[in-house]
Amino acid sequence: MKTLVQEHVQTAQQFLEAAHREFAAGDALQGSEKMWGAASHAVISVAQRRGWPYGSHRDLLVAVGRLAEEYDDRTLRAEFDAAQMFHANFYHGFMEPYQRDNSRELVRDFVDRVLRLTG
């Protein structure tokens, strides 16, 4: 039986794959929201494992800040900021193609690194 942590890990990975498909199909809005979903589910998986709150956007920001401090890694915050930009882009469609391309790499790196923290 899968744990909640494992479910969020799997969901994060599935959203990364779905984002790739959406962007390839030309749907930048859905691709953007899937990138956000991947990042947020990755953070939720760590928060659940560590017993941290994860029910709000602010809780996710705090969790990322805690991880950045614990691992002395400022890039975690910057990469999560890129994920938040995708979340906003889903609603407002403001990101230029070069921004989406650059930020996709940042979010993929973020998700991969955070998921490794889940053990």
What's the gist of this structure?
The protein is mainly alpha-helical and 119 residues long. Helices cover 82% and strands 0% of the residues.
Task: Summarize the helix and strand pattern as letters.
Answer: HHHHH
**Oligomerization category of the chains in this entry:** single chain
**Nearest-angstrom radius of gyration?**
14 Å
* DSSP helix fraction: over 70%
Overall geometry comes to globular
Number of helices: 5
User: What is the average per-residue confidence, as pLDDT, rounded to a whole number?
Assistant: 95
Separation, N- and C-terminal Cα atoms: 17 Å
Class derived from helix and strand content: mainly alpha
What about the largest sheet? none
Strand content: under 5%
**Strands, total number:** 0
Uncertain regions spanning at least 5 consecutive residues? none
Explain the overall architecture.
The chain is mostly helical and 119 residues long. The protein is 82% helix and 0% strand. It is built from 5 helices and no strands. The longest helix is centred in the N-terminal third of the chain and has 23 residues, at 28-50. The two termini are 17 Å apart. The model has no long low-confidence stretch (mean pLDDT 95).
Task: Please tag this protein with its features.
globular; 119 residues; mainly alpha
Question: How would the blueprint of this fold be written?
Answer:
Elements: H1 4-24, H2 28-50, H3 57-70, H4 75-92, H5 97-117
Helix pairs in contact: 1-2, 2-4, 2-5, 3-4, 4-5
